[in-house]
Amino acid sequence: MTEAVRNDVRPSATAGAIYGTIASMAVVAGGAHNTSIGRLLAVTVLTLAIFWLAHVYAEALAHHLTAAKRLDWPAVRRAMAEEWPLVTGPLPALAFLALGALDVLPDDRAIRLTLWCGVAQLLGWGITFARRQRWGWSMALLTGALNATFGIVIVILEVLIH
What pLDDT does residue 10 have? Predict the structure, then answer.
């Protein structure tokens, strides 16, 4: 039995949360300087919803093709649940963006906190992964730092492209 199963954590759930966090960070970083914070929040949430729907569609269709039978509602519901972490993973970071949209935080601070919270989440997931592999703390911290750095690089690339 794998460590992920023993800890009742599906690898796809963690992957979805990481993917959603990186995607939301990229949208926020790419739109931070040319749109209102309320619109930025709406575009980010909408982007996550579209990605979630695309992942649900791909997963359900893959199930249909590999099972060689009609696509059934339970398979679609299962795909919806399995892909949901793509939407919920970035919620802690997006809470800061929402605070900016509600004028609780200044826009620039809300954007910075959103991005840095995303980096902290990536760091945490990297450390968690390494510890579940029973790696030592120094390797876990290095893995977390690499995971966070990868997220920062993707955000920088997104900003450069747009």
Answer: 59
